[in-house]
Design a protein that fits this description.
2 domains, six-stranded parallel β-sheet, Rossmann fold, 15% strand, alpha/beta, 368 residues
Amino acid sequence: MKVLTVSSPHSASTRDVWRKLNLGLEANGVTVRPFDLMTRANLFDRMNVLFEKAKIPLPDGWEAMTLAYEPILGAAIHHDCDAVIVVSPQYFPAGITDLLKKVGIKTYAYFTECPYEDEIHMPLVAATFDGALLSDLNSVGLYQSFVPNGNVMYVPHCYDPNVHYPPENDDAREEKTVFIGTGYDSRESFFAKVDWPKPLFIYGGWWKFPKNSNKNIFASRSRGKNTVWTDPKTGMSYIAPPGYSVVPAEDVADFYRTFATSFSAHRTQKYWGSVDDIIEGEAYSLGPRNWELAACRIFQVSDFRQELADVFGDSVPLYETPRELGDLLKRAFDDPAWRKDLAFEQWERAQPYSLQNVMRPVAQFIAA
């Protein structure tokens, strides 16, 4: 089977989902033709900005995303593809889906933003495809009511064993904590209230921490600039490297092999700029970081997701409040034996979730 896989237009974690999809399908005998949308999307978006600045009228129907996606039909035909999978299809034109179907090419969408965007137009987008892959188990029932024949499949996140693996020497880890992710307002507010027992290093985009935060964090965050700021009371350093709106997968793994502790703080905000959060219990599934942390055998604690309990049991300590997070990390540093034992158990429980194993049923799903 030959499949054209289309990336999202964003240089965010959705890009890494696309990368793992490609590798996982190939590992299961599928011939993959990757279509990287991001450069085209950025190009046409920039063209629109320049045209508007020069006050040059744009033709009717001139949309950056439509132009970016336009060659997919030709690419799928050129490569004799049996199917097309579009990752994170928020902006995918329905007309292209119709054309693919007319020439006998199956169409699938990989919805990476479940359940955060389930209440906007995502289920309607799903209805235009032959099948849908979902990133949260709790979204399956909703999407089955929209997708033809209820052709929907839940796909848990996974890790890449060629990238995410333990260090040669766990004892050489630095006595520090690392967090990699986007600076959603809810995360910033929560982190500012934690009494961090050791320096915390944050990598990712959009962190700003106001000067008058509860932790006296003196910082400003500008997109694309390097920012390092320190809590004058504790000496805790926050680092945002230049251009790191997204941290490459290899760097993520290197950080996880270097530091002694980390934690998950699952997103609650529905989408960037939204003031609404998902309802408690609405999300079942873990984000990709839980699997990658475990695969690198760095000790992690986490807020609650049901999938965490189902897969990791009680090997991942849970927190609800900033105080609980700080206390758990303090215990991890004070009791290295406890920390290492749990990290090893977390690593063991994550082993079945390699990209090859997780994408095996996906390959079967699209071939059916």
